[in-house]
């Protein structure tokens, strides 16, 4: 599904990603871990198409299509979803209206009619129940005055509504208490299927107890320095990142 | 002949059509003297540094329309707030249209300035209020005072509230190649009364129109007045709006100004707080493009203790549009415990658009809370990316962000139909239809 080959990306002439190779197949869950400043969020932003970052070398392919120069909205239409670490507040636009707009824009791009209102309503009901979201919450302005946990839950709600092929969860666990973490993880697990894939980006191992990865990659200084199974996350938790850093130097 | 000379000579013609024995005419004559002396303000004056009236003065404006004009309701329905029942005071080329209007004397007076200025029954009120809060030396205000004859007259007695909001609408038909209008409004809300007003100036053609309007509002103790100005006029229509508000204790007056179109708009909005526990609110949304120009000059004078004022102006300027915000707050020495807030945020969506923003605080009391802030920026790139990453195309994402930017100004709009109308105008101005009703 996703093939990243020798990806180099920079911002303001400063190279952040220095040759990333990663392949994610349908049905897989990948975790990308690493210390602060290792390039985790940059990698997720580059996959989603943030224009501030310049890809200087290598490629990102989705289902065999090179995503170079593809606008973020077109990537979304192709099935890429990025859950933001810091979702943006949009006063005056309710969660429901926002998600309606997002869904219908994607449908328009695929040459489909707008989703009928009753179908939309049914879907909103199902997905909000899945994430234990109060219906009243949906009529509030998007992210405005939301707590950290509400923002993250709302991100996963949008993911559930948009049904992406590839979901990237950027630090979705930060700012969540253990109950909220469980609800969010539970939601992600229910949305997982053999046809879609998830990349979980996290600093801590905590989230991976709930969303169990098939592969764990350690990012350091813009490169994947170690890959392994889910046990790698536990090892990192135990030994800290210094161990990886030292090993990388050797 | 330039416009000033033309106005001076027109004053004599004007005098032959009004009762010069009426005491109001002394006020007019005095005002005319002031205008003769001062003339139009020039860019040399600090208050007019960024707004030039020079080109307008070269236009050969008709000062009095030659004939009465009629309009069919269906021609102009869209300019009314037709989703809700309202009282209407409608003028066509400066002349009252009884056909399009709906006035009342049922417990409240919602009628015409021309009646108020001529009929004996209104004289006691006119004597007390007319030209009492309007400036006696600001030249454009005095020009309007000199020619004051027609406009809206609203009197709400103690404890009363009209059954519906009042719309004051001025249409210019374009029958004159270029027309100057000088409406004069007098609005009095007595103790504990309530009033909602929507004002609009609309030119129906691309002919040149210049409106120099003066509105005096008096809010007595505990009165509540909400005033909405919809400025979405044609490309050759200019408006100089001079609004003066006198507030007494515990009164609450808000003015919302929505500036979406016109050639040149100058809003002089002046609040005087003559009592304690007063609330004054000034809010504005400006969305301009082309070569449009808007200049918001606000003044709040805190004269007594324990009062509040809130100002929040948002501007979105595209193409070659230019904007000015000048917010003056005066807090007198006696006006302790004043809370005065002022905010002006602007987004420039084109490299050629400009905004000049200036807070002006003169605080003489020591126990006050005053805050002000102004920002000029572009749209937040991170926010744009967030929306795009959800599949919303860049153009729609930009519109949505601009909508969100302007939105909090609408929160205080208390007439739902006005809010809905403004929402639609904003969406239309931003040139997109979103997937839902804003």
TrEMBL record, chain A:
<keyword id="KW-0547">Nucleotide-binding</keyword>
<dbReference type="InterPro" id="IPR003593">
    <property type="entry name" value="AAA+_ATPase"/>
</dbReference>
<dbReference type="InterPro" id="IPR027417">
    <property type="entry name" value="P-loop_NTPase"/>
</dbReference>
<feature type="domain" description="ABC transporter">
    <location>
        <begin position="2"/>
        <end position="246"/>
    </location>
</feature>
<comment type="similarity">
    <text>Belongs to the ABC transporter superfamily. Ycf16 family.</text>
</comment>
<dbReference type="Pfam" id="PF00005">
    <property type="entry name" value="ABC_tran"/>
</dbReference>
<protein>
    <submittedName>
        <fullName>Fe-S cluster assembly ATPase SufC</fullName>
    </submittedName>
</protein>
<dbReference type="InterPro" id="IPR010230">
    <property type="entry name" value="FeS-cluster_ATPase_SufC"/>
</dbReference>
<keyword id="KW-0067">ATP-binding</keyword>
<dbReference type="InterPro" id="IPR003439">
    <property type="entry name" value="ABC_transporter-like_ATP-bd"/>
</dbReference>
TrEMBL record, chain B:
<dbReference type="InterPro" id="IPR055346">
    <property type="entry name" value="Fe-S_cluster_assembly_SufBD"/>
</dbReference>
<dbReference type="InterPro" id="IPR045595">
    <property type="entry name" value="SufBD_N"/>
</dbReference>
<protein>
    <submittedName>
        <fullName>Fe-S cluster assembly protein SufD</fullName>
    </submittedName>
</protein>
<dbReference type="InterPro" id="IPR037284">
    <property type="entry name" value="SUF_FeS_clus_asmbl_SufBD_sf"/>
</dbReference>
<dbReference type="Pfam" id="PF19295">
    <property type="entry name" value="SufBD_N"/>
</dbReference>
<feature type="domain" description="SUF system FeS cluster assembly SufBD core">
    <location>
        <begin position="175"/>
        <end position="405"/>
    </location>
</feature>
<dbReference type="Pfam" id="PF01458">
    <property type="entry name" value="SUFBD_core"/>
</dbReference>
<comment type="similarity">
    <text>Belongs to the iron-sulfur cluster assembly SufBD family.</text>
</comment>
<feature type="domain" description="SUF system FeS cluster assembly SufBD N-terminal">
    <location>
        <begin position="22"/>
        <end position="168"/>
    </location>
</feature>
<dbReference type="InterPro" id="IPR011542">
    <property type="entry name" value="SUF_FeS_clus_asmbl_SufD"/>
</dbReference>
<dbReference type="InterPro" id="IPR000825">
    <property type="entry name" value="SUF_FeS_clus_asmbl_SufBD_core"/>
</dbReference>
